Amino acid sequence: MPFRAPVSDYQFLFEHVVDLQKVIETDRFAEADKDVIDAILTEAGKMCEEVMYPVQRNGDLQGAELENGVVRTSPGYAEAYGKVAEGGWISTSADPEYGGMGLPHTITTAVNEMMSASCLSLQLNPLMTQGQIEALEHHASDDIKAVYLPKLITGEWSGTMNLTEPQAGSDVGALRSKAEPNGDGSFAVTGQKIYISWGDNDFTGNVCHLVLARLPDGVPGTKGISLFIVPKFIPDENGEPGVANTLKVVSLEEKLGLHGSPTAVMQFDGATGWLVGEAHDGMRAMFTMMNNARLGVGCQGIGVAEGAYQHALAYAQDRTQGRSPIAGGTGTIIDHADVRRMLTTMKADTFAARSIAMACAVAIDMTTATGDKECKARAAFLTPIAKAFGTDTGIAVSEMGVQVHGGMGFIEETGAAQYARDVRVTAIYEGTNGIQAMDLVGRKLMDGGEAAYRLLDEIEANAEEARDTFPELAEPVWEATETLRETTEWLVSQTDMNDRFAGSVPFLKGFARVLGAHFHLRAAMGEGEYGARTKLARFYITRLLPEHGGLLAHAVRGAEDLYALSPEDLVA
Amino acid sequence: MPFRAPVSDYQFLFEHVVDLQKVIETDRFAEADKDVIDAILTEAGKMCEEVMYPVQRNGDLQGAELENGVVRTSPGYAEAYGKVAEGGWISTSADPEYGGMGLPHTITTAVNEMMSASCLSLQLNPLMTQGQIEALEHHASDDIKAVYLPKLITGEWSGTMNLTEPQAGSDVGALRSKAEPNGDGSFAVTGQKIYISWGDNDFTGNVCHLVLARLPDGVPGTKGISLFIVPKFIPDENGEPGVANTLKVVSLEEKLGLHGSPTAVMQFDGATGWLVGEAHDGMRAMFTMMNNARLGVGCQGIGVAEGAYQHALAYAQDRTQGRSPIAGGTGTIIDHADVRRMLTTMKADTFAARSIAMACAVAIDMTTATGDKECKARAAFLTPIAKAFGTDTGIAVSEMGVQVHGGMGFIEETGAAQYARDVRVTAIYEGTNGIQAMDLVGRKLMDGGEAAYRLLDEIEANAEEARDTFPELAEPVWEATETLRETTEWLVSQTDMNDRFAGSVPFLKGFARVLGAHFHLRAAMGEGEYGARTKLARFYITRLLPEHGGLLAHAVRGAEDLYALSPEDLVA
């Protein structure tokens, strides 16, 4: 059952759905013409199929282990990582000055998604490094950049993010890690960090930790937090790994999935680090990096959805069972209406989630290229939706994949369950999906809904344009958008934030449903009446879009009824 | 974090929601008065809390294993099983003539649900035995009854169901196992069966397999299948386990969850068995047993939902994180609106699913007691809904439980993930939830919708009754029921079954949403304006019931659009 990278889907999407053209027409991305992009996608796809996918099961069957303080990675991971790094796949968007390809983030997003589809555990390593590269590019001193960036970009070194502490999860401001000046420009970082993805490995020459900690004069809360780069081995005068730093992996977590990715508890004991960005301004640097990381995690969900979908589709085409209701005689289960419904739902939702993520990436690229405020607001608005809907889709699609397999889905040997277990954390890390939804109805509506309404205007304008060719699809999209507009207006008008938060997750889901319909409609417009994507759009708009009604009704109930149920009521 | 058996919830439900009174007023169940029922529920609850729950994690941490052909069960399972059997909890509804308690199936359903909540892996063993007891009570000869029933009822022996073969899953009629007459009234059964839950154990004196196989003159398909009882040890003249039969456990499956329950591949090599029921009539006997087993599996889902809910609630009340939006200062996460929304959803859906299951159980009891055709039709109609919605709820609630735990949810140590992994199979076995939905829109609407409409009439009458006290709840329930009626009419009018099947799962889910609202409304009526259950009903009806709209819109699309997407389109 080979994995087939969905290169043609990205190509279609870039041309007809999310308008990558405007990105490559900017000066900033002038070198990324269609030929370059096609070549990159094709090569990346090939690498995912031939290098990463073959080690996917290994990570599950023989996870990373801690042996005498050293992390031993899964069989084949070191070799596969070597090829990923060698191919330049860690740094497709990194600064060419330091060895990166400087391509649009949209291309990196597609590449990351394919890598996630083929081997999520291993892909998480470069994803972390990409986030670190970005944080350093934006916030580090030239000295730090010169030492770290070239080696992170080649993949010789890898990067991690150290935010969470036992008492400080979603509430980062509660962290207790400290940093004391050493007097030579460096700092002594002390504290314990948990859930550190790829906290160590046995295949990169160094592991560089970006650590949030508080300086002696840092105020309590998020405003007193600074960011430090703390390497496993302190670079010597030539920038090569030197003496070991005073930090260690205390333990690795036993997780539901993603066994190939070591999740570490890290202990820093006066470890030498250097400030990244300004003192007490660590959260800003962290947010730069986290925003794109959120999109990256969204794409992990979408990638797993693609992988799980292909896996289930292959099974459904192969598994003989019962009489075929369409062909007569013994048939494979894909002939059964409910199996067809599940597979089509999986594909339609994956396409919707992918379109949203790519639209977000395009907005990020346009912001990078033009500095345009509306583009920036668009990217910011779409990020929590891309993250939460992408990962929710990963979970829902891989769960459906298990169901398509019937009894075999519960048996680990088939690999269907691995997708569901691996992807589960994506709805939790990098800000839980609940946090994403709070961000959407809070921070992202602080403009009075301007960014939201601009997006809704575009959706309606597009639906108007589609009325002639696809009246039966354009009308429901237009109507749903109006409902979504009213819901958004209601949320914007709530001054007690808790009234917004009480319906934030259903709102985000409802918004994603409508956005997905918009992109499916654009796909139909790009492909014409008889195309496969048009049939898929019809399925989505007539069968899945109607879910927005229930979700948006839920979104406008406010907090009062919710809090009327006391904890005692909940126990009773 | 102790488990607390929801005894008071059943008591409330029996009194105010599903009318158990009419059951205990029948002659058949005259001995089961309220005091008896309360005592049974209380004792069963205590047993679940004190005997079964303490071994729940053991099954996950050290699953059943096959050692030299012998199944070794998880630590503590043998002792716990001994107490379950000793307490009579396997046979609360079994025939008193053979040692059972003869209580209403509704009580057994509640007991089974509590047992599932406390330790699903172990509970599956008595559930299988119960199914076997029932099949034998209805279909076996007096000789077989006399040998097997007393020992199954005490739990001295356990029972299994052997239906599935590698090539015959949902399509049971494709099975290849054979049975040849031995000439002495017994048969030589040969074949391989897969997915045999509790195919063997190390704590019962015998394991009795009910095996579907084909006699030499059995026609192909389901009409040529017969049912046999094939014991691990052939009973001697005193009915005690004698010589070992020619059957064995070939291997145990490596599963996503439910590790405490050994899932066996069984090999029968001319094993001695006896016919249960008439030759070639095995499917009928199997269906008797499967119908109640389906309700039993639905309750497994509900039980796990209850367990996962209590587990998440305890965590949310304990976990300090961030500023409380309602109390100010540092708060526990239950103060956060989205966590409150998740917990309330979990509780509201569990209540809805439980009510549906109990209503189904009451209908089964009324059928047993009176033979009434309408009761029988009601039970038949509710069974697939109870099974699918109960297990879907188990999956959704335990998934939310993981999410409530945040990062800790992905760490196996907390136990949140175990609920999600264990319950996953319940949507698959005993007929996948897709098969349940096909049954609902196919067989269960073959009466032209009569049973469905009778139920809808009752819901509307109840809503009418509630209009004075709860107008804002009664109206949406009434309206949703009208939409459901129209949807049902549409389905009934489809002559091509595939047009029904294409929307069967969304229809079942939509039906369950409305039924759940009905029972929540009844709970509010039973409890009055300020009760906790009334607040819960308000949450369900205003926030979750609206989902029915999207689901029912999906249900009436027919098959054409779905099949327009060819397998090639799905690959592209």
Mean pLDDT of chain A: 97
Task: Quickly count the helices of chain A.
Answer: 21
Largest sheet of chain A: 7 strands, mixed
Helix content of chain A: 55-70%
Structural class of chain A: alpha+beta
How far the N terminus sits from the C terminus of chain A, by CA atoms, comes to 50 Å
Rg for CA atoms of chain A: 24 Å
What can you see in these coordinates?
2 copies of one chain form a homodimer. The first copy, chain A, is of the alpha+beta class and 572 residues long. Chain A has a domain of 140 residues. Helices cover 56% and strands 13% of the residues of chain A. Chain A contains 21 helices and 13 strands. In chain A, strands 3, 4, 5, 6, 7, 10 and 11 form a 7-stranded mixed β-sheet that branches. A two-stranded antiparallel sheet of chain A has the order 1-2. Chain A has a two-stranded antiparallel ribbon with strand order 8-9. In chain A, β4 and β5 form a beta hairpin. The N and C termini of chain A lie far apart (50 Å). The mean pLDDT of chain A is 97. At the A-B interface, β12, α10, α11, α12 and α13 of A face β12, α10, α11, α12 and α13 of B. Chains A, B: It is an enzyme of class 1 (oxidoreductase). Chains A, B: It holds the Pfam family Acyl-CoA_dh_C. Chains A, B: One of its GO terms (molecular function) is oxidoreductase activity, acting on the CH-CH group of donors. Chains A, B: Keywords: FAD, Flavoprotein, Oxidoreductase. Chains A, B: This is 3-methylmercaptopropionyl-CoA dehydrogenase.
